[in-house]
Amino acid sequence: MKIIAKFLFTVFILCFSTTGMSQSETDHSGSWYNPARNGEGFHIQFLEADQALVIWFTYPGTSDNAQTEQAWILGIGEVVSGKIIVTDAIKASGPVFGEDYDKEDVARTIWGDISVTFSGPDNGMVKYDGLDGAGTTQITRITTLADSAISSSLPAGISGAWFDPATDGQGWFVEILSPSAALVYWFTYDQNGNQAWNLGVGTIYANKVVLSESRSGKGTFFGTAFKPEDIEQVLFGMLTLEFHSCSTGRMAY
């Protein structure tokens, strides 16, 4: 593996705690998608009994320029009666990928509102109203986070959102799925400062998660213009996340 860069990165959720949260709420943390819209989806993470993080990995809409190939929308919402209500979710752009990344270049635009209503442990509905349009989409669970009872060299509390303060504006979302597997998202930018993301399932070795193949999706658009048959899976490369504790680690790609 050729290491292009290494980052010290700090956990955004310190050893994911479920204190004060019902079992039904914590069970909803993980990845979700609409099978009819395979190629885009949502990572949902309950932070506290009354807060949850939602990030939507998707494709460019009318608010993006013609060079944008991917998009992601992020917000922290209030949990009311089991429903997540995100007001003023954001889109970010500006920094260029790699060694020339400058967090001062990050421009955050208020995109709009997102709500997530769960109809059971494995099903729900997303309603949205933002810069790229309004609508609803049904969602189905893809992953369930491993609980604290699993026997693994990495604690289940590693699951959560991570970032490097020096490159604020991009970040990694980690889901410990089992003693041997973890899902990793990287939400970042391309060489022109447009939004980009990649994801993959990696293998856990001691204190590391190794993704031999992290992939991006390109070729379609947001909302009603979405066509799953147009999506091209593009190999991004290899990622290694090494955790030094519940709050620090290093990433190499």
Uncertain regions spanning at least 5 consecutive residues: 1-5, 16-24
Question: Helix/strand/pairing class, anyone?
Answer: mainly beta
Largest sheet: 8 strands, antiparallel, barrel
Mean pLDDT: 90
Shape: globular
- Proportion in helices: under 10%
How much strand?
over 45%
Q: In whole angstroms, how far apart are the ends? A: 8 Å
Q: How many DSSP-defined strands? A: 16
From N to C, what is the helix and strand string? Answer: EHEEEEEEEEEEEEEEE
Strand order of the largest sheet: 1-10-11-12-13-14-15-16
Give the C-alpha Rg.
17 Å
Write down the oligomeric state. Answer: single chain
Number of helical stretches of at least 4 residues:
1
What does this structure look like?
2% of the residues lie in helices and 54% in strands. It is mostly beta strands and 253 residues long. The radius of gyration is 17 Å and the shape is globular.
Briefly, what is this?
Helices cover 2% and strands 54% of the residues. It is mostly beta strands.
